[in-house]
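--- STAGE predict ---
source: upstream dedup step, 1 unique chain passed
mode: sequence only
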Amino acid sequence: MHHFSYHQGRLYCEQVDLSRVADDVGTPVYVYSTATLRRHARVIAEAFTGVDCLIAYSVKANGNLAVLRTLAREGCGADVVSGGELLRALRAGIPASRIVFSGVGKSRMEMKLALDQGIHQFNVESAAELVVLSDVAATLGKVAPVAIRVNPDVAAGGHPNISTGKAGDKFGVAWAEAPGLYQQIQALPGVEAVGVDVHIGSQIGDLAPMRLAFEKTVGLVRQLRAEGHTLTRVDLGGGLAIPYHAEDSPAPPKAYADMIRDITEALGIQVILEPGRVIAGNAGILITEVLYQKPAPDRTFLIVDAGMNDLIRPALYQAHHDILPLREAGADVGWTPFDVVGPICESTDKFASQRLLPNPEPGDRLAFMSSGAYGAVLASQYNARPLVAEVLVDGDRFAVVRRRPSFEEMIALEHMPDWLS
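--- STAGE serialize ---
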């Protein structure tokens, strides 16, 4: 569920009229609901009551510091994939002892940073990475806690671009390669095997592929323990789906937790989870303002001030977002199909095709729903457009948690060489 609803004909986030946010901050603007973030974090935590479980929120879904601080106060750790995300998590108050470092391309600098901070675990994704991590840790006189990310060759995810567990994907090591890497860990300085990691994709609504991958992973843990490896953790990644369409009914966290409990409880092992979208996705919206209607021979374009640089998911994944007007349409208002597009000079700058809307006029505001995950974090300054602003709502109050930069701030990092001055 989420905390966005109509009151007296106006769309609210909790107790805040979203038209007021748009008036004060301008558009486009992301708005996040504290109550929704808290609820989702608590629903997952409660589902795993009685399990030794580290809920390491996936920072790549939404890395705003205020969002991270909100989740840190709910007891969440963090799953990070870069040095920058690690620093964000630390700045937001998440202790290093609750941070897991994933990703296929960790640099030596990032490894050193994580080792100096004393993070909970490195999820290692290749033999080459393992050798480099060993060298960095040994040079520092430290020991890196390691889980090898295995690729179980299980297909899952709502789009090929967010499937990460098939044999042809870049993530993890081939299943047959994993036992040899654990033997290598025993021979290398500066690294210690503490667990096994698996993550098969994102926006997974059916638990069947997850169960298959998790059962294979638990079988590998048992095999490695029998071979003498002391493994105390299993990292099962994230990927649980959210409803982007009103008719969607993905597996609920309770069913997900029951499945994991059934598979892992006999191991006496810490379970690490990396939820991101399922916590942040429905907790955020993007508000945009209508600029023009543009009739064409076979359709009408609705041009808005948000672009694919602000929300790239529809262009990148053909993703669906429900679109709601900030002023609720009356029962007598006719609904018209529109192609909703932005101002970016790309044909892919399209949010929806033939979407039924209550004939919005220039100046009307619309909300792209369920855009709290993989929205602002993927934003860019393409076409020299300022990064989108972000707002956090808590009850009847709101605050700008990332302001929109000015044009001068956008170009301040650039420098004209003296031969062009």
